């Protein structure tokens, strides 16, 4: 017996076609063929909950199911389409990618390490083991001047006077008397040690000189220097080749304005024109420190008829003169008006051959 729908041969005793699922009976005369309802009785669909068509519903565009109220159509499973196998990963590219990433990590780590090393600098052990010692230039010590050596040309001579002038204990016999000028009690000249210096002063305008009285301090050729600080007055300086009996000699003085003068003096004459005879005068503000209470190292070199003048170890002038041949040394202070005072320290003298 065959199926009445698909004509498929039915197995013995089958009530349903194994091919299309149609209910059947062993034979056409079987009363169950008519009285037994098919297993796929029509099913009424549920009432719709939609009001109006839904343009976005897939069911609105689908045709009604032709199988509502009738047996389902024979089921034919769709043919199975062979699927292409998933592409196998390219091992060469994968290995290359892994190796590249590994190298990048190594480079980054090494670069970071080198950066940290560069920022941190070499370790103390590296500096100790690898650092090249830097040779520091050795400063050449400035030799201390030998006080016994004559610093002025001709740079020879015997040191015969070396006194810081703190007091009168060196045996040079610096004059410390006080005298009235022409018995005028208002015009007094004096010299004394005070404030670690030898002071020569006068209470009124004029000049006065004082110096060491030791008998062996009489010179013909001599280099003589002293540090002078004018505390009052217009100037001060050195006297040399002074005759102690007649008060005649040479005077080299500097002024507080930076001027200088070299002259001969004679305090015994009544001729004012002969009291001071100027041999050389001028100004040298580069060598002379100007002003009151300013110190200058003043020096004279008398060698034969050549008289050379120095201030702060700089030669400022020179002259040839033979008016006086020998005599004593001393300090002179000068004032054009009012009183005067000079503080003297570090007096030195060298007898020249």
Outline the structure in words:
The protein is of the alpha+beta class. The chain has two domains: 1-44 and 61-73, no CATH class; 158-351, Jelly Rolls. The protein has helices at residues 32-35, 58-61, 91-120, 124-130, 272-275; strands spanning 158-163, 178-181, 184-193, 198-202, 206-210, 218-219, 222-232, 235-243, 248-255, 259-266, 276-283, 295-303, 306-311, 314-320, 327-335, 340-351. The strands form two sheets. Strands 1, 2, 3, 4, 7, 12, 13, 14 and 16 form a nine-stranded antiparallel sheet that branches. The model is unreliable at 27-77, 93-101, 103-110 and 112-129 (pLDDT under 50).
Uncertain segments are: 27-77, 93-101, 103-110, 112-129
Average pLDDT figure: 78
- CATH topological fold name of the largest domain: Jelly Rolls
User: What is the string of SSEs from the N terminus onward?
Assistant: HHHHEEEEEEEEEEHEEEEEE
Provide the CATH architecture of the largest domain. Sandwich
Fraction of residues in H or I helices: 10-25%
CATH class division of the largest domain: Mainly Beta
| Shape designation | rod-shaped
Helices and strands: which structural class? alpha+beta
Strand content: 25-35%
| Main pleated-sheet profile | 9 strands, antiparallel
Total of domains: 2
Report the C-alpha radius of gyration, rounded: 66 Å
Task: Give the N-terminus to C-terminus distance in angstroms.
Answer: 170 Å
Number of helical stretches of at least 4 residues: 5
User: What is the assigned CATH homologous superfamily of the largest domain?
Assistant: Exo-inulinase, domain 1
How many strand segments? 16
